[in-house]
Every structure is written in C-alpha cells, then in structure tokens.
Design a protein that fits this description.
Pfam family, one: AMP-binding
Family: Belongs to the ATP-dependent AMP-binding enzyme family.
Number of strands: 30
InterPro entries: Ac_CoA_lig, ACAS_N, AMP-bd_C, AMP-binding_CS, AMP-dep_synth/lig_dom
EC number: 6.2.1.1
Helix content: 25-40%
Distance between the termini: 61 Å
Enzyme class: ligase
Bound molecules: ligand 6R9
Length: about 625
C-alpha cells in the first residue's frame, strides 16, 4: 500500500524517511496506484545534475488529460470539476461537470487538430480567467501540443518575446477581459504583439466582452463557431513520460525571461500528490486557489493537481477589490469554500480595509488556508489566522517555484504544527540543504544559508526552452550536485525552514517575480536616461515595491523630472506591464559601482529600505562619493 494520503505527523515522518531513503521504490508505489497509464515505466529515475539531465518514469506512456478527465467520468461524471465565478457578482456562477469538461476539452482538441496543431507544436495561450483558459490548456495536453500560457496582464512586447522564444504557431486569446469595473482590450494587445511574430499562423478568439475588434482574414478565427461544429470526442494522444507538457516563462536576473519546460509523468504524479496532502482534499470539498492560471500556481493547483484528484476547483475571473474588498469572503460564503489558497500581497491588501468586510460573511466552511508567492510577514499571518481562519484553520505557507513545478516546503495541515512566517518542513521526497558562500553545506539547526535541493523530485523543470546551458548555469553551477533555488533560508532550532527572500536580482512585487534587467532595459530606452538600477524596498501591501535610481544624460537640469518619471513608467508599462512600474524614482549623478563596473545593488537596496546604519563593505567601490549624494536625496 502506498502512502497517498498522510493523516498525522508521525505518518509524515515515517513516509518522509521512506521517500528519502528509497526514493525510487517510494515514487513507484505512488505512481502505480493512483494514476492511469497506457504503459508502465522501465526505470523510475535516472539523473545527473552535472549535465543536468533528469528523467522520471522513463518508458511510461500516458496522457495527463485521461488522468484529469476520462477516468473520473465513471465515478464522478456529474460532479463539478470547474466552478466558474465571473467578474460580476450578479452574473451566475457556472458549474462545469467532469462529463461536460471532458466534452469541451475534446471539442477544443478537435479544433486545434483541424487548425493543423500537432504533437510537439507550441501554442501560446493569452486569456483571462474564464473557463476557455483551463479548457485550452487541457486541449493542448490532450493532443500533445506544448502550451505556453502568458499572463494576460503582460504587455504586447512581453507577449511577442515569449511567442517568439518558443516559436508558437498559434495564439489563443479573447476579444477582451473584465477586470473589476474595467475592460481590457486583449485582442488589441495580441494584434500589436503579432506584428513582430512571423511564426504565428492562426489566432483563436473567444468572445467574452462583446467588443468590436479587428479580425485578420485567414489568421483570426472566432472560437465558438468552430467548437459548435467540432466532434465531442477526441482520443488522447499517447505521450512518453518525458515528453514536454508545457513551457512557462519566469523572470531571470538577466535579459530574457526563462522558458521553464515541464514534462508529463513526473509533473502529474507530484502535483497530484502534493495537492492531496497539502490541502487535505476530501471528495466533497470545494477548493479555491485565487491565483491566475498564467502563473505556475494556477497551472499546478487550479488545473492539474485538483483535476487529477477529481476535485472541484474554483476559477475566479475578477479581482479582490470588486465590487468591494469583501469579494473573496463573499465567494467563500457563497460556494462554501473548504480550502482557500492565496498570496500574502492579497492578504495585506484586504487587511488594510479592516475586519468589517470579513466579519460580514460566514466563513465557517473553511478548513485549510494556504499562502504562496513570497514570504508572509508576521502581521499578515496573524490577520489571516485570526480573521479568516478564526484560529481554527491551519495556514499552509507553501514555498516553491515555477522551476519546481510543485510545492516543496510546507506544513501538512492537521499534522505539522504551524509557526508564523515559517514554511516549516520539506514535503515528502524533498531534500533541502543550506549552503554557505564557499560551497559547503551547513549542517545542524539554527543556521542560515542559500537554499538548495540535493536530490531530484518528479516535477522539477527539465530545461530552459532552447537554452540548456542557461539552465545549467542558473541552477546547477553555483553548488556542485545541487539544484540552487536563488533563495536564502534559515533553519530554526527544530529544523523548520523560513524563506528569507531572493539572493539574486529577482524582486518579488505583489507575488510576481520581476527581474531587474528587463526593467532596466526598458528604462534605458528613454532617450534622456544614461543608466539605471532597480531595487526592491519593503511595501506594506505589495511586499516589495520598486525603487529606481536613474542617471540622466544631461544630469537632469533641463528636464522636467516629473515628466521623465511618467514617461519612464509608461515605457515600463509598454515593455513589461503595469506590475513592473516604479513606485519611487530618484535621479542621481551616478551609480555606485565596483571596479569591475558592476552596480552595487546591495548598497542601493539598503538606502532604498532606509537601512543605512551599516552599508557593509564599500572598499571595492570605484566612486564612494556618489553614495553620500544618493543618501542625502533618498525618497
Ligand atoms: C510558486 C511561485 C518563486 C519565488 C521563490 C521565492 C518566492 C514563493 C514562497 C516564497 C517565501 C513562500 N516564494 N513562495 N517565498 N515563502 N511561501 O510563487 O513561483 O512565481 O516562480 O516564484 O517566490 O522567492 O523563489 P514563482
């Protein structure tokens, strides 16, 4: 018997020991008993972090959508698979059953097929949080096409960069999207992006806001008429275990975003197993993750993990502030949500509005609360625990990454005693290590270091699309035989982990990973800008906000600074998206640099955070005088 469902703390330790002392036997048992395979594997795991090459369940054949859909039809065909809550609370929610979802995915798969999409082709999905988003993801998986979902808040430039990086043949979008009281012209953004994307042959357009849009003849097609005519069955394409399932872009510390590539079997096994245990999902529960499917959290814990387990997963189209800041709690009451998974930035935004809007609603259905995306600060943790969970529902602070595919460090609710701001213990099968700056592992407790993982787990990304060298350099070169996460962490006296934040040039703003380099590239396009450096500083709602130090070409004397500030933020909005806008812009005559010309962000970070008591070692600075100037004028 495998240990698919862990029910108490003792059991966690037993299973954890088993999973690390004999990983292959352990994962084989899990895979064997809880999934539908067309053919079983010849070998559970082969790996070499020096190449790096990782393969799980080699030789196995499957289609992940048969695990998400077909095998549930018999036992729970009429159970709601996706519960869609629209932007407008007065519009009815939609309950899409497993049977209906199966049919919608099959029809969509037929449309993709008819438009010439084949196994291995890349399809870019740029859709708001409407059912078509989940359906198109699954339709790609059903025919073996590799989906690349781009968050529909990204700009035309960000979209075209991602389309071209993976050579997508098709884009799936909608006429527009609702966002609270506003609408967004998604199709207009796609049209602009596609001016730079010669490889895109067709665009499928879902109707959502009924706006007047431009349809390019021969390229653009309304989705609904095609679906109406499509056949309701589509026999799933058989995939090898290591065939790519999707690409998802995440920011890097230099230039181009990284197209993290995930494969089929390992991702399926790990997302399903973590979902079951981290949320303690039981058959009749209603589960809601507030993320967007454009992020990894949505991929793994709105679509795949829940559906593989036959769960009811809620998809919410709107925003937490519309029609007011009680919307989340209204939805919890209305749909009797049992598991609620959100981000610290959302909690902080809601906490700002007091407890009145929380107390108004009946939240007694809640059993488990989750947090993801960035470290949850103590104040937000207590607010969540006291006002939402009423001190009854455990908070699972789940640490993981786009690269890891699934949750890595987390409490198991009702088993692991929680501790504010601590992600607590590694999940089953995960072997973390803290490393010092000389490449040595730091053993024992009450220590801190750089967080690495020593041993492969099934859902780890296998490469960066089109750039295996960068994959190796970024994750497997800092420490020998280790996956380096880019995060710092500490381990307390009982072995609990607390993630302290990024140690590289990635800043997490409102739970979104932003690389400094692409933002600086956008700023530097401004004709008055000579040079710029971006750092994060603490912000009570966003977690971090962006602070830009900018040197102007003419030292700024002849320019209207406020205008330049506006133009810079407009450039960032156009190139990356509004989430990357700078909260503060300080004009300086220079930036502190090392002799080798590297900007000393460490110092800029301290100044922006008003933490200037100890600037650390400044002896390698080429231009120490500029530090004083920057400190005198800090915003
Ligand atoms: C799932 C997701 C990954 C980065 C990660 C870390 C931060 C995520 C966290 C957390 C502290 C948590 N992060 N969860 N930090 N506690 N519970 O967010 O993926 O968008 O790739 O971000 O987010 O810094 O390295 P992704």
């Amino acid at each position: 018997m495998s240990n698919y469902h862990i029910k108490h703390f003792e059991e966690y330790f037993q299973v954890y020991r088993k999973s690390t002392s004999n990983p292959e036997v352990f994962w084989e048992e899990i895979a064997e008993e809880h999934f539908y395979w067309r053919k079983k594997w010849n070998k559970v795991l082969s790996w070499d972090f020096s190449k790096p090459e990782i393969k799980w369940f080699e030789g196995a054949q499957l289609n992940i959508t048969e695990n998400c859909l077909d095998r549930h039809i018999h036992a729970r065909g009429d159970k709601t698979a996706i519960l869609f809550e629209p932007n407008d609370p007065n519009d009815p929610a939609q309950h899409i059953t497993y049977k209906q979802l199966h049919e919608r995915v099959c029809k969509f798969a037929n449309v993709l097929h008819d438009k010439g999409i084949k196994k291995g082709d890349r399809v870019c999905i740029y859709l708001p949080m409407i059912p078509e988003l989940a359906v198109s993801v699954l339709a790609c998986a059903r025919i073996g096409a590799i989906h690349s979902v781009v968050f529909a808040g990204f700009s035309a430039t960000a979209l075209s960069t991602r389309i071209n990086d993976c050579d997508a043949k098709m884009v799936i979008t909608s006429d527009g999207s609702y966002r609270g009281s506003k609408t967004i012209d998604l199709k207009g953004i796609v049209d602009e992006a596609l001016q730079d994307c010669p490889g895109v042959e067709s665009v499928l357009v879902a109707k959502r806001i009924n706006s007047e849009i431009n349809m390019k003849k021969g390229r653009d097609h309304w989705l609904q008429p095609l679906l109406d005519e499509a056949y309701k069955d589509y026999s799933a394409v058989v995939m090898d275990a290591e065939d790519p399932l999707f690409i998802l872009y995440t920011s890097g510390s230099t230039g181009m975003p990284k197209g993290m590539m995930h494969t089929t079997a390992g991702y399926m096994v790990y997302t399903a197993y973590t979902f079951k245990n981290v949320f303690q999902y039981n058959e009749d529960d209603i589960y809601w993750c507030t993320a967007d499917i454009g992020w990894i959290t949505g991929h793994s814990y709105i679509v795949y993990g829940p559906l593989i387990n036959g769960a009811t997963t809620v998809m919410f189209e709107g925003v937490p502030s519309y029609p007011d800041f009680g919307r989340f709690w209204d939805i919890v009451e209305k749909h009797k949500i049992n598991q609620f998974y959100t981000a610290p930035t959302a909690i902080r935004a809601l906490a700002k509005h007091g407890t009145e809007l929380v107390d108004k609603y009946d939240l007694s259905s809640l059993k488990v609360l989750g947090s993801v995306g960035e470290p949850i600060n103590e104040e937000a943790w207590h607010w969540y625990n006291d006002n939402v969970g009423k001190k009854r529902s455990p908070i699972v602070d789940t640490w993981w990454q786009t690269e890891t595919g699934g949750i890595m460090i987390t409490p198991i609710p009702f088993s692991t005693p929680t501790k504010p701001t601590y992600a607590t213990l590694p999940f089953i099968g995960i072997q973390p290590a803290l490393m010092d700056e000389n490449g040595q592992e730091i053993k024992g407790n009450q220590v801190d270091g750089r967080l690495c993982i020593k041993f492969p787990w099934p859902s780890m990304a296998r490469t960066i699309w089109g750039n295996h060298q960068r994959y190796k350099d970024t994750y497997f070169s800092a420490y020998e035989n280790m996956y380096f996460t880019g995060d710092g962490a500490l381990r307390d006296e009982v072995g609990y982990y607390r993630i302290t934040g990024r140690v590289d040039d990635v800043i997490i703003v409102s739970g979104h990973n932003l690389g400094t380099a692409p933002i600086e590239d956008a700023i530097n396009e401004h004709n008055a800008v000579a040079e710029s450096a971006i750092v994060g500083f603490p912000h009570d709602v966003k977690g971090n906000a962006l602070y830009g130090y900018i040197t102007l070409k003419d030292v700024g004397e002849t320019r209207d600074h406020d205008n330049v500030r506006k133009e810079i933020n407009q450039l960032i909005t156009d190139r990356i998206g509004p989430i990357a806008k700078l909260d503060k812009i300080q004009f300086t005559t220079g930036l502190p640099k090392t002799r080798s010309g590297k900007i000393m962000r460490r110092i800029l970070r301290k100044i922006a955070s008003k933490d200037t008591g100890n600037l650390g070692d400044t002896s390698t600075l080429l231009n120490p005088e500029v530090v004083k100037e920057i400190m005198d004028n800090v915003l």
